[in-house]
Design brief:
four-stranded mixed beta sheet
C-alpha cells in the first residue's frame, strides 16, 4: 500500500520536491467537489471535501497534484525584512519607511510616511512591534462594534501568530486574530473579526452562523473573502 494511504496515527502528508508537506483535510457542508489549496505561508496543503468525502480521496487528490503544489510553493512571496526607504503595508496601503538617525525611536505615522529613528539594524523587529500594537488597537475597536451588533459581551482578544489561519474563537470565548491582518484593507480585517464574533453565537458554519455574520457585518463580505484568497499570501512576505 502506498505510504500516503497508511491508516496510522501520523499526520497525512504529500511529498513535494522531496519534502513531506502536511495535508489538512476539511469537510464543508456546502462543498460540491474536492478543492486543493496551499496555505499562505506554504506550510501545508489544504483539501476541502464535500461532507460525504472520504479521507482516502483527499489524500489521493493531493498526491496526484504534487507538481502543482510545487509550483504554488515556488510562487509564494519570500519573506524580506523592511528597510529604510522601503515600503510597509498598513491597512491596505503602502507607507514609506522614513528612517532618520536623529528621529524619535517610536514610529510616527504622517500621511503616507512612517517616521522612525533608532538603530537601523533592528528596524524590522521594531516595525513589527508597531504593527502589532496597531493591530491590537484596531482589532479591539472592530470587536467592540461587532459584539454590540450581535448583542454579546465583548470577549478577550489576543493577537495570533498562526501560520495556518486568520482567526479563531475558543470555547471559553477568547477571540484570536492574526496580527498580519493589520496590513490588509479595513474591510478584510473587519470581516475576519465579524466572522469570529458570529462564532460567539453559533460555533459551527451552519445557516444560522451565516445569517448572523450577514446581519452584523456591514461591509462587502464576498469581496473580503476574495481578497484574502487572492492576496492573503502576500501578508507573509514581510516578517515571515
Amino acid at each position: 500500500m502506498l505510504d500516503w494511504l497508511r491508516r496510522d496515527h501520523q499526520e497525512p502528508t504529500v511529498e513535494v520536491n522531496g519534502v513531506a508537506l502536511p495535508i489538512a483535510i476539511k469537510r464543508h457542508p456546502t462543498a460540491k467537489r474536492v478543492v486543493l489549496r496551499i496555505a499562505p505561508d506554504g506550510s501545508e496543503a489544504r483539501v476541502t471535501l464535500p461532507r460525504w468525502g472520504r479521507t482516502a480521496d483527499a489524500l489521493e487528490f493531493a498526491n496526484s497534484r504534487a507538481d502543482w503544489l510545487a509550483r504554488q510553493i515556488e510562487s509564494l512571496p519570500r519573506a524580506a525584512a523592511p528597510v529604510a526607504g522601503g515600503n510597509l503595508r498598513y491597512c491596505g496601503r503602502d507607507l514609506i519607511i522614513d528612517w532618520q538617525p536623529g528621529a524619535k525611536r517610536k514610529p510616527v505615522l504622517y500621511r503616507d510616511r512612517l517616521q522612525i529613528g533608532g538603530p537601523e539594524e533592528n528596524l524590522g523587529p521594531r516595525l513589527q512591534r508597531w504593527l502589532e500594537r496597531e493591530a491590537l488597537q484596531l482589532l479591539g475597536e472592530d470587536l467592540v462594534q461587532f459584539c454590540a451588533a450581535a448583542g454579546v459581551t465583548v470577549p478577550d482578544i489576543r493577537l495570533s501568530r498562526a501560520q495556518r489561519r486568520w482567526g479563531s474563537c475558543s470555547s471559553s470565548g477568547t477571540v484570536r486574530i492574526n496580527w498580519r491582518l493589520v496590513q490588509a484593507p479595513d474591510n478584510v480585517r473587519r470581516s475576519v473579526v465579524a466572522h469570529e464574533v458570529a462564532h460567539l453565537l453559533h460555533f459551527d458554519h451552519g445557516p444560522e452562523f451565516h445569517a448572523a455574520l450577514g446581519r452584523i457585518f456591514d461591509g462587502d463580505l464576498p469581496a473580503a473573502n476574495c481578497w484574502l484568497k487572492r492576496e492573503g499570501r502576500a501578508l507573509y512576505a514581510v516578517f515571515g
